[in-house]
Structure formats: structure tokens, C-alpha cells
Design a protein that fits this description.
357 residues, Spore Coat Polysaccharide Biosynthesis Protein SpsA, Chain A, 2 domains, 7-stranded mixed β-sheet, 4-stranded mixed β-sheet, 12 helices, 22% strand, transferase, Galactosyl_T_C, glycosyltransferase activity, Glycosyltransferase family 2 protein
């Protein structure tokens, strides 16, 4: 009757284990259970895989998307495509579930309603303890805007093409699904009679300049503006221009290790525009693009030409190049196997993308 999906990327294994244990110890064991790992580091993945083997009920799916933006929506949709039960539940990997959580879900299940559950947030000290569910002291309660743990009628969620895979990184994807369900005609129900899920504290990953993982400095803001427009446009169905819930194929990602086409460009506006145009019709295989900053000599010569009102080349700051390129990937190439690195110390971007997959 119930399918649950949890999504993960590099979350602390102590947190993951508490989450898995809480589902493993449910009083009602009649539910389907997916764990989708979307791009954890290889060394971490070995430890996670070992942990998951202790839970025979889990349908464990790994996606080799380490060098890509985090896509919780695609991870959820991969499980949604496989779900056979009438109700589909999205949960966070940092939650601890009440022992009667599944029992409560089944009592609430209604094909015309969407139910989501109030969070009880734990502080750092409490989260580091190992206790029975009821003994964890809640620091504060989440309100209606916290939408991360929701039960959907599966058929309706599939009919509106699942979660919107435009959302990459973090923010707004859960609320978006709620809004579109409401637009479809379903009733949103916030369950706060008792706390059925407790959220474990964890620090936010600090982004140092040494990090080379894909990161768009304005993506969270874009996600929220996109959500605002979803509301104004009264949207229901999404993911209409490309496949949703597309399963990753390992051989297509392994091909990224041996690109057959290489291109090196500088961070000029014209070079970047030309690259984006080329990508539109390039199916030559696995392309490796390196984008480097213009030399200091060229930069200052160009600056002088601009000052003297002579013809000059428009140079785009590398952070803006990064954001523009990632936006194009999200809009057009998010289903393609790719690996993306931005070395902010060396001011160098390397994109490897399998355009034929």
C-alpha cells in the first residue's frame, strides 16, 4: 500500500543509520522502501553500501552522478517510476520516524488528499544521542512551510510527471509538488496532532574556495523565483520537454573517462556564447571543454581599449561563466552524463559531457 523513498548524497553515516533503523523497526512492516543515492563520493559509497546490506527490505539504487549538481527531484522520480503501491511517501535521510509511522500513514491514506507531517527538530547534542523515539527532546517544531515529508497518491503524482527536475541544488522542490497537487484538485493536509518525524541536526557543508564540486551561487534564489512563477502560472504538469525519472546507465558515465573531442576556450562572452550554440547540435560523442581566464596582459590591454572607447572584447568573470554554464546544463542537458569541475583557485572550469547518451 505504501512506497517510501529516501534520497542521499554524502550524508553522515551515523545520521543515515538512525534513519534506516527507525524504518527497520516499524510496527507495521508492510511497505516498500527505496534508498536512492545520487552521486555520493566513491569512498563514502563503499561504506554506505556496507551499511545498507543490513536492511534486506531496502531497494537500493546508486547513481554515478558525483560530478553533477545535486538533483533530489530526479532521485525521487527514479523511485516513483518503479513504485507500484497506491501511496508514495517522500522522506529525508536525516529524519527519525516514529515506530508507528507506517500505521499512521495507512490510517490517513486518501486518494483525494496529500498529507505532510510536522517536523520535530533536534539540537546538536540531542541528535548525537541514541534513544527511543519518544525520548528525543524536540528543540522546536516545524510549521506548515516545512514540506519535506509527504504522502502522495501515486497515480496523481505520476500523472503530473512527478517532481519538477528543473530544481537542482536545494530549495523549493517539495513545496512545488504540493502546489501542483493542489492545482490538480487535491486537498493539502498538514498533520500536527503529534510528532511522527524528528529531524536530526547536521551542519551545512561549508563551501571553501578549494571546493571544485558544481555550485551555482544564485541557484537557491532562482529556484524560489521559479516557484513563485509556478504559483502565478497555475502549473500542474512539469517535465514535458525531456524524460523524467531517467535511470542512470553506468557505461554512459564511464565513457566520461575517455573523451574523444577536446575544446579549450577563454572566458570571453563570444567564446561562451559560441560554445552554448555548438552544444545545441553537437552529437560527436564525449566532449571535454576547458575554460580558462584570459591572461593578465590581455585583460589589461582590453581594459585600456574599453577606456579609450576602442573596439574591445567582452570578458565575462569566471563566476558568471560558471553560473551561466550551469544554468544551461540545468535547462537543456541535465539528463546527460556529465562531470563538472570549477577550480576557483586556478580559475579553471572543466566540463566533460556525453552528448550521445
Amino acid at each position: 500500500m505504501i512506497t517510501i523513498v529516501l534520497t542521499n548524497r554524502n550524508r553522515n553515516l551515523d545520521i543515515v543509520k538512525k534513519c534506516l533503523e527507525s524504518l527497520h523497526n516499524q510496527s507495521d512492516q508492510e511497505f516498500e522502501w527505496f534508498l536512492v543515492d545520487y552521486g555520493s563520493d566513491v569512498s563514502y559509497l563503499k561504506s554506505l553500501t556496507k551499511l545498507v546490506k543490513a536492511y534486506s527490505k531496502i531497494q537500493y539504487i546508486t547513481c554515478p552522478t558525483n560530478g553533477q549538481l545535486w538533483s533530489k527531484c530526479r532521485a525521487i522520480n527514479i523511485a516513483l517510476k518503479k513504485a507500484q503501491n497506491p501511496y508514495f511517501v517522500v522522506g529525508d535521510i536525516d529524519l527519525i520516524f516514529h515506530p508507528d509511522y507506517i500505521t499512521n500513514l495507512k490510517q490517513l491514506a486518501n486518494p483525494s488528499q496529500v498529507h505532510y507531517f510536522q517536523y520535530g527538530f533536534l539540537n546538536e547534542i540531542e541528535s548525537n544521542q541514541s534513544k527511543d523515539f519518544d525520548l528525543y527532546k524536540v528543540d522546536f517544531k516545524g510549521q506548515e512551510e516545512v514540506t519535506g515529508n509527504t504522502m502522495f497518491p501515486t497515480s496523481v503524482l505520476k500523472e503530473i510527471n512527478g517532481f519538477d527536475e528543473f530544481y537542482q541544488g536545494w530549495g523549493a522542490e517539495d513545496t512545488d509538488a504540493h502546489i501542483r497537487m493542489k492545482n490538480y484538485g487535491l486537498q493539502l493536509c498538514f498533520f500536527n496532532k503529534r510528532i511522527l518525524v524528528k529531524h536530526q541536526w547536521h551542519g551545512k557543508a561549508y563551501r571553501s574556495k578549494k571546493s571544485t564540486h558544481p555550485y551555482h551561487s544564485q541557484l537557491e534564489s532562482i529556484n524560489h523565483k521559479y516557484l513563485e512563477q509556478t504559483v502565478k502560472l497555475n502549473r500542474t504538469v512539469v517535465n514535458t520537454k525531456m524524460k523524467w525519472g531517467k535511470v542512470t546507465i553506468e557505461k554512459d558515465y564511464l565513457a566520461l573517462q575517455t573523451p574523444n573531442v577536446f575544446l579549450k576556450i577563454e572566458n570571453t562572452h563570444s567564446s561562451l556564447s559560441a560554445l552554448l550554440a555548438q552544444l545545441q547540435h553537437d552529437n560527436s560523442g564525449v566532449l571535454n571543454v576547458e575554460i580558462v581566464q584570459v591572461s593578465k596582459t590581455q585583460y589589461w590591454k582590453n581594459k585600456l581599449k574599453k577606456y579609450l572607447r576602442k573596439k574591445y572584447i567582452e570578458i565575462t568573470p569566471m563566476e558568471r561563466v560558471n553560473n551561466n554554464l550551469l544554468e544551461e546544463i540545468i535547462k537543456t542537458y541535465r539528463n546527460k552524463p556529465y562531470n563538472y569541475i570549477f577550480d576557483r583557485v586556478k580559475n579553471r572550469i572543466v566540463l566533460t559531457i556525453n552528448l550521445t547518451a
